[in-house]
Amino acid sequence: MKAHIITIGDEILIGQIVDTNSAYISKALNAIGVSVYQISSVQDDKDHILESLAFAKANSDIIIVTGGLGPTKDDITKSTFCEYFDDELVFNQEVLDHVEYLFEKYVKKPLLESNKTQALVPSKATILKNKYGTAPGMWMEQDGKVFISMPGVPHEMKGLMEYEVLPRLKEQFHLPYILHKTLLTYGMGESAIAQRIEAFENELPSEIKLAYLPSLGRVRLRLSTSGAIKEDVDAAMEVQLQKLVPLVADVFVGYEENGPLELLIGKALTTKRKTLSIAESCTGGSVVQRFASNAGASGYLVGSTVTYATRSKIEVLGVDKALIDAHSVVSAEVAEAMAVQVQKMYNTDYAITTTGNAGPTKGDSDVAVGTVYIGIATPEGSNAYHFMMGNHRKRVIEKTVNKALELLHEEISKN
Amino acid sequence: MKAHIITIGDEILIGQIVDTNSAYISKALNAIGVSVYQISSVQDDKDHILESLAFAKANSDIIIVTGGLGPTKDDITKSTFCEYFDDELVFNQEVLDHVEYLFEKYVKKPLLESNKTQALVPSKATILKNKYGTAPGMWMEQDGKVFISMPGVPHEMKGLMEYEVLPRLKEQFHLPYILHKTLLTYGMGESAIAQRIEAFENELPSEIKLAYLPSLGRVRLRLSTSGAIKEDVDAAMEVQLQKLVPLVADVFVGYEENGPLELLIGKALTTKRKTLSIAESCTGGSVVQRFASNAGASGYLVGSTVTYATRSKIEVLGVDKALIDAHSVVSAEVAEAMAVQVQKMYNTDYAITTTGNAGPTKGDSDVAVGTVYIGIATPEGSNAYHFMMGNHRKRVIEKTVNKALELLHEEISKN
Fold first, then answer.
1. Mean pLDDT computed over every residue of chain A
2. Beta strand residue intervals within B243-343, DSSP E
3. What is the distance in angstroms between the Cα of B40 and the nearest Cα belonging to chain A?
4. Taking 90 as the threshold, does the pLDDT of residue B78 lie above it?
5. CA distances (Å), B213 to each of A68, A406, B184, in order?
6. Under the phi-then-psi rule, with left for phi > 0, alpha for psi from -120 to 50, and beta for the rest, what region is A146?
7. ∠ Cα A54 A59 A63 (to 5°)
8. B107 pLDDT exceeds 80?
């Protein structure tokens, strides 16, 4: 089964928003055994949408459309579906009841005429209930192909996928099992890894595909395969993992499918009943934000401090002014002192800190743009590490966060 | 001039990464007068790429391809281009020199055979220098249409766009001027705004398009137009803005093109020589991270504290334990006390704080999931505000950040 995702909206084509819906839908479809053949982002234009529906139907079995279902004049998906399916809009009482319920419960304002038009739906469509919004989803069929329309608002789309689209697809089609396993590696380049695992790659059976995904200080190695019987697929994958993991053992930190590194760290800390505090300078909250965005962070994350100004490092964190004067605010000594101080301040087992210059200009220190120190305090002691992270502000920040997580993960894994 | 962007990579179609390159390219093309007709994400598969090139050529003048240029076996863009253009790969000394330079300067490891293959390029291609990586960009032409290939690594692609692709497109084509103006509004729903500006929308000249972009507590209103003469386009837009802005004056906070709200706040603080500190609980660093990701934040952001655990609010921030016991850690009283305390701790003019329960389960407080208090301290005094932000963790966090920025912006604009 192949799917084609069509995301509608000028805001995508002028670069005003990043289309995150497609990635969510693709991942969810893969998880139930549907491959995505193509993703097309098209304009809020009737002819363009009609052309895309025809093109998608020619190469896929399932066509999933998002966007263009709002109550305003720039939303034209429903009328375009009517033209494509030679259909007309009819009033649906169930949809209106739901819209009225949402307004009464959440909006607490009277229903507008434009909101009522949400209850007009193509007569041939099966209506998919949108728990989180007023625009219903639609399911239509033509020549054995399924066409699904959902709103573009991400959380409404996700609710529809979870409660309506995925269960119906699983029921209607006999789907294979698709399996991806992605090895997270840190500290070795793409071509160096490729050279090291060349023999493995050459011997890989044709039904298992290997891909390299390099980004900012790490390379992800993905093995992908699929088949009718889950047990066979799992077993075939396991055979390859047993060969591959030992080849990259020194740079391997875990499987991406188990969650990102901050989640692995969080789980380890929770299991070991250990706590964490953070003090950030150049990363400005990006480290703590990675932990706090996950549920369960309150189980190990006691607190964090962003000491952006030098005086905050002294007054709030209690780093010795003489130490800063002697070594510069961007130094191994200060990174380590920050770790010791924040560990004490929040009374935690582990602490991780960053100090550096992310650019574009030199800040409170004379060090070169891209200079970064990461400090770590553990129950056993403290340490600091030096890195050069390039000269692009956002990349310096992201690389530093990745490196800090990697070092912390290593420390926690020791005990 | 119409462009078609093709992003190649199975990682996009299985939802392993979000394609952010397309948004960047679209925005950059719009800025020089090129409209994007469609974005297509396709598999690492020769036939599929060939089909996409033909489809894109049929409806666009400029075809921009990213991805598939790495040194590993899953990278097939160059060989596919050779097939499409009936061409062959030839050795290019200039590219090899650049690869050798990068390895010497940054990688500090000997060149591998696979890295040398980067110097093999289609004979008909004009080579575009990739300042930040080993895979060169390529510019090819066929029947008056331009085909551009760039690596998928975001910062390499961005460098190629800036230094090679955009200057060449501007030189080769006579391009119109495209103008978008996006009004950021907070606190009113999409359909309510649409009703209020209905007469304006009906009278809008056909060459100016209006779009509504609702998301988590705010609606963006975008006016888009284009023309041959910049001055005429600007004047026509100004006429409409003069009509539209007064209609939404009570919910209008600024133009998106001037940067996001945190940038507007940062500029205002810098101009007024005022400083900011932040104390976050439920948002876990997401507020400070918004400020710190922008250059220049060190000019006004003194520091911030994430007091995730209740004991941190007492021990680190100095919030009175009796106050927490009397009102709960998630309360207006605590949000306001946090603001007063963090303002004092970092000695700043303004302070903003968050405390709430982002879910999924109840934390250190008994309040319902989604309950949020935002505290603000200014040179004149302090205050706190109560909100219900729904029950989805990441959305609660994002809505709270948006609301905190909105309230802070309002306060700063008063003085």
1. 93
2. 252-255, 276-280, 301-307
3. 4
4. yes
5. 11, 38, 10
6. beta
7. 65
8. no
A109-123, B9-23, B134-148, B165-179: the lowest-pLDDT one: A109-123
Backbone φ and ψ for B380, nearest 5 degrees, come out as: -90, -25
- Per-residue pLDDT, averaged over B213-226, amounts to 89
Alpha helices by DSSP H, A204-331? 230-247, 261-272, 286-292, 310-315, 321-327
Residue with tokens 């000028």: A10
Residue in the structure block whose two tokens are 């119109």: B176
- Please give the Cα distance from B213 to B180 (Å, whole number): 13
> CA-nearest residue of chain B to A344?
B316
Across the interface, whether the CB atoms of B18 and A14 are under 8 A apart is answered: no
Chain pair A-B, CB pairs under 8 angstroms: 319
Q: How far is Cα B392 from Cα A131, in angstroms, rounded to an integer?
A: 13
Mutation pick from A21, A312, A347, A361 vs chain B, by most beta carbons of B within 10 Å, is: A312
Q: What tokens does A195 get?
A: 């050279």
pLDDT band per the 50, 70, 90 thresholds, residue A54: very high
The DSSP bridge partners found for residue A147 are A63, A140
Is residue A131 within 8 angstroms of chain B, CB to CB?
no
ipTM for the predicted complex: 0.85
Q: Is A180 exposed, middle or buried (0-12, 13-18, 19+ CB in 10 A)?
A: buried
Which ranges of B125-203 does DSSP label H, i.e. alpha helix? 154-160, 166-172, 190-196, 198-203
Estimate to the nearest angstrom the gap between the alpha carbon of A106 and the chain centroid. 28
Contacts of A119 (CB under 8 A, 6+ apart): A91, A92, A93, A95, A96, A99
pLDDT of residue B363: 66
Looking at residue A358, its pLDDT comes to 86
Tell me the per-residue pLDDT of A263-287, one tens digit each, with 9 for 90 and over. Answer: 999 999 999 999 999 999 999 999 9
Tokens representing B121 are 């390029």
Q: Are B313 and B281 in contact (CB under 8 A)?
A: yes
Interface probe for B, chosen from A1, A13, A52 (most Cβ of B below 10 Å), is: A13
How does pLDDT run across A138-154, given as a tens digit for each residue? 999 999 999 999 999 99
pLDDT digits (tens, 9 = 90+) for B326-373: 999 999 999 999 999 999 999 999 999 999 998 887 766 778 889 999
Name the strand (E) or helix (H) holding B409.
helix B393-414
Give chain B's domains with CATH numbers. 2-172 (3.40.980.10), 177-258 (3.30.70.2860), 261-414 (3.90.950.20)
- Tokens found for residue A88: 């007309």
State how far the Cα of A67 lies from the Cα of A9, in Å rounded to an integer.
Answer: 6
Considering only CB atoms, which chain B residues are within 8 Å of A359? Answer: 295
State pLDDT tens for residues A180-196: 999 988 878 888 999 99
CA atoms of B213 and A12, how far apart (whole Å):
11
Amino acid A228 reads A
Complete DSSP assignment for A28-84: HHHHTTPEEEEEEEE-S-HHHHHHHHHHHHHH-SEEEEES--SSSTT--HHHHHHHH
From residue B56, alpha-carbon distances to A267, B39, B49, B264 in Å are 47, 9, 10, 39
Cα distances from A76 to residues A42, A66, B277, in angstroms, run 12, 12, 45
DSSP label of A4: E
**Residue tagged 């080769």 (tokens):** B172
* CA contacts within 13 A on the Cβ side of B80: 24
Q: What pLDDT is attached to residue A363? A: 66
- Which of residues 317 through 346 in chain B touch A, CB cutoff 8 A? 345-346
